[in-house]
Write a structure and sequence with these properties.
Elements lengths: L7 H9 L2 H23 L6 H15 L4 H8 L4 H12 L6 H12 L2 H26 L1 H4 L5 E11 L3 H15 L2 H11 L3 H7 E5 L8 E10 L2 H26 L3 E12 L2 H26 L3 H12 L10 H16 L12 H25 L9 H5 L3 E5 L10 H12 L7 H18 L4 E6 L5 H14 L4 E6 L5 H6 L5 E7 L5 H14 L3 E7 L1
Helix pairs in contact: 1-18, 2-16, 4-5, 6-14, 7-13, 10-12
């Protein structure tokens, strides 16, 4: 026997032939889930008396609300209503309402929530400090493609090199003194911290001059006039200090050996600017992401700490809380006449039909795969390598309700093949059988099968009557595998014809019958399938 394979076309025909069951299952699914949706809608339909009782008890329930719940309820109202609701919640007159609210909210928050708020406040303060520094910093505002740098080289000359070296160190201290930085900050309007970034002192290579020691002052700014002005202040300051030092330390000379001005580009400044932006973005992301995860109570407490007033989540849509209050107000104003009545949901009905259909298709698939019985669409020649003398169609199919639909479905399978009526298919099968019997000159023929009934048994009886006139004995051997008398009668026949009924005979039974015939050496003329 050839291994049976699943044929997709046969499977689709099998599904379509169950169209009556699919319709019934869909109706059953629609009824079940429709009933469920009706029962589910019943609790929403409350009598007016129950609503009145809920309204009467709402005042008592409000007393059990936390301060956070009270603020949430009245936050979208006017500030006077919110303040009145908070005072009612405390039940006493409070001299400092914000302090009392802050203390109560702190009690209602957990330790983890308070830690989260402290974390946000800390990183927010760090970000604000960095932001202030960036706004005041000249270095952070510089355009690296248009930086102006002014360099001043001063030389200190004395009667010997050691004295010149010592005096030069004193002048370096003057340059680095807070007196000079403060004076420059007052005159230029640039903060002291910003000046520290753009003004610095360094040694100069001109110190090798005989009897002279040198130092260099560098100034950076993107405005040439400001840069020149700061340089003038340094020169003026050194001249004033020269007079003071001459009186205290004796005669010596401090001269401006070189003054240069030019545009430069420094990538190190760009690197510092980018580092500052990266740090600020990281800090901002740290506290903003945690603020967005605040609960309502956390927002109320946080805004009291930072703004000194009660406020909610600024990231939420303004219409959210208003919409909730409007919805609740509309529900309170609905009259008993306009209350929603119980009903069947169309969505549940459709879902029920779809689920029932899929369940039924799954059952058909399982039955089709696990089926071990002969199908009317099977070909004996392909499965068992025996001649198929015919297929006897079922006359009862047309008698079913809407049998024409079944015939139309079967026509999809047979295509352009000529579909015979039950009587025509039986006569054709008998004619083929007679030809085979007469061709082989047989005198005794056996019609064997398992579960011969209906069209199969009718065919056997007609064949017996038709061949009786030709003096050919016909033995109808039903259930030959299970009937000892039928198996003994098998020895009297010259050849046999298998007559099997679709949906009754097992594939294994046909294989066992063929094995029996082979063992007994009885030739097989062919097989017939009765629907």
């Amino acid at each position: 026997m050839r291994e049976k394979e699943i044929n997709l076309v046969d499977f689709m025909i099998e599904i379509l032939m169950h169209w009556r069951g699919m319709i019934l299952m869909m109706l059953l699914g629609a009824m079940l889930l429709g009933s469920f949706s009706y029962v589910r809608s019943l609790p929403r339909h409350q009598p007016q008396d129950e609503k009145t009782e809920e309204t009467d008890t709402s005042t008592d329930l409000e007393e059990e609300l936390t301060l956070t719940d009270t603020i949430k309820k009245y936050l979208t109202s006017s500030s006077e209503d919110l303040e009145a609701a908070i005072r009612i919640w405390f039940g006493k007159d409070l001299p400092d309402l914000n302090a009392a609210v802050k203390e109560q909210l702190q009690k209602e928050l957990t330790e983890e929530q308070l830690t989260k708020i402290d974390y946000v406040l800390y990183y927010e303060a760090l970000y604000n400090d960095k932001k202030s520094f960036q706004d005041e910093s000249v270095m952070q505002q510089l355009d690296i493609d248009s930086i102006q740098r002014c360099e001043l080289i001063f030389g200190v000359t004395a009667d010997d090199l050691e004295r010149a070296y010592n005096l030069e160190k004193v002048y370096e201290d003057f340059i680095k003194s807070s007196e000079l930085i403060s004076m420059m900050s007052q005159k230029s309007g640039i903060s002291v911290s910003a000046l520290g970034e753009i003004f610095w002192l360094s040694r100069s290579s001109s110190e090798l001059l005989s009897g002279t020691d040198t130092f260099k002052v560098s100034i950076l700014h993107d405005d040439e006039n400001i840069c020149q002005g700061l340089a003038d202040m340094v020169i003026e300051y050194i001249e004033d200090k020269h007079q003071l030092m001459t009186e205290q330390r004796g005669p010596h000379e401090v001269s401006l050996l070189s003054r240069s001005m030019g545009k430069i580009s420094k990538l190190s400044i760009l690197s510092k600017q980018r580092e500052m932006w990266s740090t600020m973005l990281s800090l901002q992301n740290n506290y903003v992401s945690r603020k967005k995860a605040f609960s309502e109570g956390e927002w109320y407490y946080y805004n009291l700490l930072t703004n000194g007033k009660i406020a909610g989540n600024p990231y939420a849509k303004p219409s959210d809380s208003q919409k909730q209050n409007e919805d609740s107000a509309q529900k309170d104003d609905v009259s008993p006449v306009s209350d929603t009545t119980p009903g069947i949901s169309l969505k549940y009905v459709v879902i029920g039909m779809i689920l029932a259909l899929f369940l039924y298709l799954f059952i058909i698939f399982i039955k089709y795969v696990l089926n071990k019985k002969l199908r009317s669409t099977d070909q004996l020649a392909e499965l068992y390598h025996i001649s198929q003398l015919g297929i006897i169609s079922d006359s009862k199919r047309k008698q079913k309700a809407f049998g024409a639909i079944d015939q139309a479905i079967l026509s999809l399978h047979y295509g352009n093949e000529h579909k015979l009526s039950p009587e025509e298919s039986m006569n054709l099968a008998m004619a083929k059988s007679k030809l085979a019997i007469q061709k082989n000159g047989l005198k005794a023929i056996g019609l064997i099968g398992c579960g011969l009934k209906g069209p199969a048994l009718k065919y056997c009886e007609k064949m017996q009557d038709a061949l009786k006139a030709a003096d050919i004995k016909v033995f109808i051997l039903n259930n030959i595998l299970y009937d000892a008398e039928a198996m003994e009668a098998l020895m009297q026949v010259d050849s046999v014809i298998l007559v099997e009924t679709a949906g009754v005979t097992l594939y294994t039974e046909i294989a066992q019958e063929l094995e029996l015939l082979q063992r007994q050496g009885i030739p097989l003329l062919g097989g017939i399938i009765a629907e």
